[in-house]
Design a protein that fits this description.
Blueprint: E1 3-10, H1 14-21, H2 31-35, H3 38-47, E2 51-56, E3 71-74, E4 78-79, E5 94-95, H4 98-110, E6 116-118, H5 125-135, E7 144-150, H6 160-175, E8 182-188, H7 205-217, H8 219-223, H9 227-234, H10 242-249, E9 255-266, E10 269-278
Amino acid sequence: MARITAGVTTSHVPAIGAAWDHGKDGDDYWRPVFEGYEWTRRWIGEERPDVVVLVYNDHASAFSLELIPTFAIGCAEHFEPADEGFGPRPVPPVIGHPDLAWHMAQSIILDEFDLTIVNKMDVDHGLTIPLSLMFGRPDTWPVRVVPISVNVIQFPPPTGNRCYMLGESIRRAVESYPEDLNVHIWGTGGMSHQLQGKRAGLINREFDEAFLDKLTADPGALRKMPHIEYLREAGSEGIEMVMWLVMRGALGPEAKELHRHYHVPASNTALGHIVLQASA
């Protein structure tokens, strides 16, 4: 049977991808950002996951205000890097796992979640930057990916509780898949940041670090956090952190923290990264 063995979260700041793609990862400004992922790259090389269920948000690349799914699952065989206005990132196509994705779609929908099934979509920096941070610059990505897109762009986004429940449903779906697969689940986005208005550039280290603490030890508290608290404490784009609760819900009630990285600033945001081991 397939099983979820670990969860990973990371910010997906666009400037990180630009720095990586242009070989600036060794520059004084960017070196501390990328050094925080060295442990994870070694660890994931030993873990060798077969599939990553990658929870991210689309940035008007595959979806627009004409079509806004709250939750969508990519069931295609492959996903091309999206052109976000400056050409696609110079990274390999993302290889899907259609059999697992369709099994998950059926299981999760019958578990009373209304997933949008997507058979063709390009994936933007929200998905490709985490892959670069974990796997470097390979000719092909060493894992297959099932993308889960969450709307955190257009109000109303889903609640943290709903995201956590989706994670629980994903775990049930994966564990009912008959093939022996080592599956990781990643949550991306965040941490505190605001890109516009009078509070542009907002960073709240105290909130971010408390969120990371609770993600490991007290996810129940995060399930209850209302949207307005994300907005007030973490900025208008801080709502992306509800996607981390999808990851946390998929790990089970207990999780062991293996690694943490927090850095300010990364462009005009706070960067967060954590690795959790799933409960048995």
